[in-house]
């Protein structure tokens, strides 16, 4: 791994991905935004992502380690999903990343539709979330919420704050877990900051999604899964569950607010949920 990184420093157009690397404890790395090469290695209990980035207009490679590469874990599956190798779309020429110093609006200049996490291998796509030309109508997003008064109130909040686009994707895996991801883009990061307290709170979100009864902060979500510059608010449904068990997360990334929901009869598993949250956070970072 060290030899590969030394080669990357000598050849800055190389993106290094090390699928056979061993996990080590690493201190948090402060991103230097004035550099044009970014390397970060995250260790966490659910999914491990190794990614590299080159320049403001290059794609970022995102992958995961095989379970057998993780010390101390048995060979049988822990429920992790098999996501394809994921790359960020290139930025338009001359456009900064969302967290570059010169990007005071925190804008995502890449196509928002290409920043939605793709489905894992073998999953069945949710056609209802395809939208028109990849854009979902606001009312279709609001249908995620259970109470009509909540849908009306939240719809007014989004309109008043100049919601620009909604990009979405959903799928169902073989174990019956139904995942929905929504990316909501506004004009600036300041707008997202101004509405966050109206959408989600410290212990529970303001608006309840379909199928959930009582939802609280997910204390089991690993702190080492945090992605710099992307704030997450993660919730899990309290027992007793209804017909399905719900997990959900809101992500705040610059000018974009994301909602991730996973539901499953019985219990919605923690590992694929954590994996999904981290990978989507990576795409928005």
Description:
- It is built from 5 helices and 11 strands.
- It is an alpha+beta fold.
- The strands form 2 sheets. The chain has a 7-stranded antiparallel β-sheet, with helices on both faces. The protein has a 4-stranded antiparallel β-sheet with strand order 1-2-3-4, with helices on one face.
- β2 and β3 form a beta hairpin.
List the helices and strands and how they pair.
Layout: H1 2-10, E1 37-41, E2 49-54, E3 61-64, E4 86-87, E5 124-125, H2 138-142, H3 148-160, E6 165-172, E7 178-185, H4 189-199, E8 215-217, E9 231-237, E10 245-253, E11 256-264, H5 270-284
Antiparallel strand pairs: 1-2, 2-3, 3-4, 5-6, 6-7, 7-11, 8-9, 9-10, 10-11
List its salient traits.
22% strand; seven-stranded antiparallel beta sheet; 5 helices
Short structural description:
The protein has 285 residues and is of the alpha+beta class. Helix content is 19%, strand content 22%. It has helices at 2-10, 138-142, 148-160, 189-199, 270-284, and strands at residues 37-41, 49-54, 61-64, 86-87, 124-125, 165-172, 178-185, 215-217, 231-237, 245-253, 256-264.
């Amino acid at each position: 791994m060290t030899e590969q990184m030394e080669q990357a420093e000598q050849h800055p157009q190389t993106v290094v991905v090390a699928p056979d690397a061993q996990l080590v404890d690493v201190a948090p790395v402060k991103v230097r935004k004035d550099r044009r090469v970014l390397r970060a290695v995250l260790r966490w209990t659910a999914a491990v992502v190794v990614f590299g980035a080159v320049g403001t207009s290059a794609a970022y490679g995102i992958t995961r380690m095989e379970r057998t590469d993780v010390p101390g874990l048995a060979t049988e599956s822990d429920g992790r999903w098999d996501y394809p190798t994921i790359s960020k779309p290139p930025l338009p020429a001359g456009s900064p990343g969302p967290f570059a110093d010169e990007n005071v609006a925190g804008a995502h200049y890449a196509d928002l539709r290409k920043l939605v996490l793709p489905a894992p291998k073998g999953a069945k796509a949710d056609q209802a979330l395809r939208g028109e030309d990849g854009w979902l109508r606001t009312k279709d997003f609001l249908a995620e919420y259970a109470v009509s008064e909540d849908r009306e109130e939240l719809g007014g909040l989004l309109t008043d704050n100049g919601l620009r686009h909604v990009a979405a994707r959903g799928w169902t895996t073989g174990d019956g877990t139904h995942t929905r991801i929504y990316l909501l883009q506004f004009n600036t990061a300041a707008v997202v900051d101004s509405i966050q307290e109206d959408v989600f709170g410290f212990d529970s979100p303001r608006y309840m999604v379909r199928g959930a009864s009582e939802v609280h902060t997910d204390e089991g979500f690993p702190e080492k899964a945090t992605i710099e510059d992307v704030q997450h608010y993660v919730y899990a449904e309290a027992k007793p569950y209804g017909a399905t068990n719900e997990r959900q997360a809101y992500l705040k990334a610059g000018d974009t607010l994301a909602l991730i929901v996973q539901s499953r009869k019985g219990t919605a598993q923690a590992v694929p949920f954590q994996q999904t949250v981290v990978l989507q956070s990576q795409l928005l970072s």
